[in-house]
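Example for tutorial group B:
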C-alpha cells in the first residue's frame, strides 16, 4: 500500500502544480472568472486569486518535502478539495454557467466531470493519509515510475470531460 500512497502523493503534487501553473499563466482571466463567480468587489479580485494560487503552490512544495510537513500539506489539500467539491456541487445544483479556469485558460463551463475529479482527488488524499508508512521505503527507481504514472493519470483527470466524450463516442 506504500506504493499506492506514494502514487497518490505524486498525483496530488502534479495536479496542484498544473493547476497553479495554469492559473498563474492566465492570471487576468482566472482573477476575472473567480471574481465574477464569487461576486467579489474589485479590490478583492486580485487578493482572492493570489491567495488561491499561493495555496496551491505552497501545498505542492510541501508535498515534496519529507517529514511532518508532508502529512500536514496533504490534510490541507484534502480540505481544499472538499471545498472545491462543495463549491462545484453548489454550482451544478443551481444550474449556473461558470467558466472553468481550474487549470488555466479553458473554453468550457464547470460540469459534473469537475465534481468527479474533485472526488478522485479527495480519495487520493485519503489513501495517502491512511496508507503512508515509514516501514516500507520506496526505491528511487520506483518513485520515478510512480511519478510518470501519476503524471499520466493527472492528465487524464484534468481532461476527464474529453476522455468521457471520446469513450462515449466510440461505444
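The residue assignment follows.
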Amino acid at each position: 500500500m506504500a506504493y499506492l500512497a506514494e502514487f497518490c502523493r505524486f498525483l496530488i503534487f502534479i495536479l496542484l502544480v498544473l493547476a497553479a501553473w495554469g492559473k498563474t499563466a492566465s492570471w487576468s482571466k482566472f482573477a476575472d472568472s473567480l471574481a465574477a463567480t464569487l461576486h467579489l468587489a474589485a479590490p478583492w479580485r486580485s487578493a482572492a486569486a493570489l491567495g488561491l494560487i499561493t495555496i496551491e503552490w505552497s501545498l505542492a512544495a510541501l508535498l515534496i518535502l519529507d517529514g511532518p510537513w508532508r502529512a500536514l500539506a496533504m490534510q490541507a489539500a484534502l480540505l481544499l478539495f472538499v471545498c472545491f467539491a462543495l463549491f462545484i456541487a453548489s454550482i451544478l445544483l443551481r444550474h449556473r454557467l461558470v467558466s472553468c479556469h481550474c487549470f488555466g485558460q479553458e473554453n468550457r463551463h464547470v460540469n459534473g466531470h469537475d465534481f468527479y475529479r474533485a472526488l478522485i482527488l479527495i480519495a487520493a488524499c485519503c489513501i495517502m493519509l491512511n496508507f503512508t508508512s515509514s516501514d516500507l521505503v520506496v526505491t528511487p527507481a520506483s518513485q520515478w515510475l510512480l511519478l510518470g504514472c501519476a503524471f499520466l493519470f493527472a492528465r487524464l483527470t484534468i481532461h476527464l470531460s474529453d476522455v468521457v466524450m471520446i469513450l462515449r463516442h466510440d461505444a
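Helices lie at 2-25, 27-38, 42-64, 68-93, 112-131, 140-158, 160-170. Compare this with the pattern of hydrophobic and polar residues in the output above.
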